[in-house]
Amino acid sequence: MRCVIQRVLQASVEINDVIHSEISTGLLVLLGVEDGDESNDGTWLSSKIARIRIFSDGVGKMNRSVVETGGEVIVVSQFTLHASTKKGNRPSFLKAAIPEISRPLYEQFCTALEKELGKPVRRGVFGADMKISLVNDGPVTILIDSRNRE
User: Fold this and answer.
1) Among 145, 146, 147, 142, CA closest to 66
2) How far apart are CA 87 and CA 137, in angstroms?
3) How far apart are CA 43 and CA 111, in angstroms?
4) Is residue 78 flagged as an active site residue?
5) What is the model's pTM?
């Protein structure tokens, strides 16, 4: 699994001109499921996201997690995170898992993240055409890949 996490002051998901979900201060997580990913990838990734220290402490250092700050999280599925641009100008998405595999793994990831946070996460709608709005705080944007556990 590959994700982009962004520290935000606010974020929202709009579908068909209606706000589906929104958060204030916290994290926007864009999640892509790759062919071959398993539930343990989501478990590892959810733990990492809940504990990553990218929020400021009392002296302005990035030293606090979303759990410690009580921030909110919104998760949006995004298969395009697995785009290959190696050949030509049209991205290939062959590495992205098919919906029958990626949808349950997306749901399992969200459930695991809720357990880590101790509260619900907001979500997009899997496979929907969504409009994502955000105010990136910092900006702070981090890439994490469960196959590259550094």
Assistant:
1) 142
2) 34
3) 9
4) yes
5) 0.94
pLDDT tens-digit profile of 36-72?
A: 999 999 999 999 999 999 999 999 999 999 999 999 9
C-alpha dihedral sign at 55, 60, 62, 67:
negative
Instruction: Report residue 36 as tokens.
Output: 């071959």
**Assigned CATH for 2-145:** 3.50.80.10
Q: Which of 6, 55, 79, 109 is catalytic?
A: 79
Q: Which residue among the candidates 78, 85, 108, 111 is catalytic per the annotation?
A: 78
Does the active-site annotation cover 80? yes
Distance of alpha carbon 4 from the chain centroid: 6
Active-site residue (options: 80, 93, 126, 141): 80
Q: Residue 12 corresponds to which tokens in the numbers above?
A: 């929202």
- Per-domain residue ranges of the chain: 2-145
Check residue 98 and report its DSSP letter: P
Q: How confident is the model at residue 20 (pLDDT cuts 50, 70, 90)?
A: very high
